[in-house]
C-alpha cells in the first residue's frame, strides 16, 4: 500500500500562543546586550536599497513619492510576515532589528563624556550622527539641547514605537513601522528635493507615531521624579511644536529634566525658530546624562508592557 501523505495546514510549524511575547522579550534583551551591529545591520541594508531605488524612481511629485513609500513599507511588512513563520526566533530577530535604544543611549553618554573632557569638536562630531541640523557652530548648550531633543524623539521612534507596533501586530508591525520610520529619516525632509516626493513618507510616519509618542510621554511621567512637571509641560507646550509627535516627547523630557528645549535650529535647507518647551535653563552635560538615564528607564518599561500585552492577547 502506498503511503499517501496528506499535505495541508497541519504540516506547518506549530506556532505557540506566546511566541510573540517570548520573541519580543528576547529581542529586547539582545538589544541591551549587543546594541546595533556596526556592520551588516538589516536597517542599513534596507536603507541602501531605498537609496538605490530612489535614484531611478525619484520625481518631484507626491504620487510618485507615495508609491515609493507604500512600496517600501510593504517590503518591511513582508519581511515581518516571513519572520513570523519562524515563531519566537523570528519575533526576536524582528525585535532586535527594529530597536535602537541601547545604541542611542550609548551615543548620549559618549557626547557627555566628550563635553566633560573639554572635547567640544568631538562632541559636535558625535551629535552630528544623531541630528539633521548644522552642528558645526554649536556650543555646549547647543550640543546638549540637540542631543536631548534627539534622545527624547528617538526614545519614542527607536524603542517605544516599534514595541508598540510589536504588541499590536507582532513582527510585521515592528518591521513595517521600522520601514516607515527609516523612510521618513531618509526622504521626509522639508527641503526643495523632498518637499513633495517625501511628503507621503513623512505623513505616514506621523500617523504611525501618534499613539507611541503619547505613550512615551506617559511613560516619561511614570519614570520621572516630578511627574506633575511632565504633564504641565506636555499640556502647555507640545501643541506649539511643528511636529505632532516630536513636540509631545520633547516637552515630556523637558519637564522631567527641568530644562528648556527648542529655539533657533539651523538646517542645511534653512533655519527654523522652534517654540521653547519646558521651564528652566538650557541643558548641559549633566542634564544630557539624566536624559540618557530617563530614556533607559522608559525603554525598559515599554519592553515590559509589550511583552505583557502580547502575552495577554495570545492567552
From TrEMBL:
Q: In which pathway does it act?
A: Cofactor biosynthesis; adenosylcobalamin biosynthesis
Q: Where are the transmembrane segments?
A: none
Specify whether Repeat is a keyword of the entry: no
The yes or no answer to whether the keyword Transmembrane helix is present is: yes
As for membrane topology, the entry says: Multi-pass membrane protein
- Where does it localize? Cell membrane
InterPro entries in UniProt: Cobalamin_biosynth_CobD/CbiB (IPR004485)
Q: Which keywords are on file for this protein? A: Cell membrane, Cobalamin biosynthesis, Membrane, Transmembrane, Transmembrane helix
Any one GO MF annotation of this record: ABC-type vitamin B12 transporter activity
GO cellular component terms listed in the entry, alphabetical order = plasma membrane
* GO BP terms in the entry: cobalamin biosynthetic process
Recorded hits in Pfam families, A to Z, give:
CobD_Cbib
User: What family does this belong to?
Assistant: Belongs to the CobD/CbiB family.
PANTHER family, per the entry? COBALAMIN BIOSYNTHESIS PROTEIN CBIB (PTHR34308:SF1)
Instruction: Fetch the HAMAP family from UniProt.
Output: CobD_CbiB
Q: What is this protein called?
A: Cobalamin biosynthesis protein CobD
Which gene is this protein's source?
cobD
Amino acid at each position: 500500500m502506498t503511503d499517501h501523505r496528506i499535505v495541508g495546514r497541519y504540516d506547518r510549524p506549530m506556532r505557540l500562543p506566546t511566541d510573540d511575547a517570548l520573541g519580543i522579550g528576547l529581542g529586547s534583551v539582545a538589544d541591551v546586550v549587543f546594541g546595533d551591529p556596526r556592520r551588516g545591520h538589516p536597517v542599513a541594508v534596507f536603507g541602501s536599497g531605498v537609496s538605490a531605488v530612489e535614484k531611478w524612481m525619484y520625481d518631484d511629485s507626491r504620487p510618485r513619492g507615495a508609491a515609493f513609500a507604500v512600496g517600501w513599507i510593504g517590503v518591511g511588512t513582508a519581511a515581518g510576515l516571513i519572520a513570523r513563520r519562524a515563531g519566537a526566533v523570528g519575533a526576536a530577530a524582528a525585535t532586535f532589528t527594529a530597536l535602537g535604544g541601547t545604541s542611542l543611549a550609548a551615543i548620549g553618554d559618549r557626547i557627555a563624556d566628550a563635553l566633560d573632557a573639554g572635547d567640544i569638536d568631538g562632541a559636535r562630531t558625535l551629535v552630528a550622527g544623531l541630528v539633521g541640523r548644522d552642528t558645526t557652530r554649536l556650543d555646549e548648550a547647543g550640543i546638549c539641547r540637540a542631543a536631548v531633543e534627539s534622545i527624547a524623539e528617538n526614545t519614542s521612534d527607536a524603542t517605544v514605537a516599534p514595541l508598540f507596533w510589536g504588541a499590536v501586530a507582532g513582527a510585521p508591525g515592528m518591521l513595517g513601522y521600522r520601514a516607515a520610520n527609516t523612510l521618513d529619516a531618509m526622504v521626509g525632509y522639508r527641503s526643495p528635493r523632498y518637499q513633495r516626493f517625501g511628503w507621503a513618507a513623512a505623513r505616514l510616519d506621523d500617523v504611525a507615531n501618534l499613539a507611541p509618542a503619547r505613550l512615551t510621554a506617559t511613560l516619561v511621567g511614570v519614570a520621572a521624579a516630578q511627574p506633575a512637571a511632565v504633564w504641565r509641560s506636555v499640556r502647555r507646550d507640545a501643541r506649539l511644536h511643528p511636529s505632532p509627535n516630536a513636540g509631545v516627547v520633547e516637552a515630556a523630557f523637558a519637564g522631567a529634566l527641568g530644562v528648556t528645549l527648542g529655539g533657533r535650529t539651523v538646517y542645511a535647507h534653512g533655519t527654523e525658530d522652534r517654540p521653547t518647551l519646558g521651564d528652566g535653563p538650557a541643558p548641559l552635560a549633566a542634564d544630557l546624562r539624566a536624559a540618557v538615564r530617563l530614556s533607559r528607564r522608559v525603554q525598559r518599561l515599554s519592553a515590559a508592557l509589550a511583552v505583557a500585552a502580547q502575552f495577554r492577547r495570545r492567552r
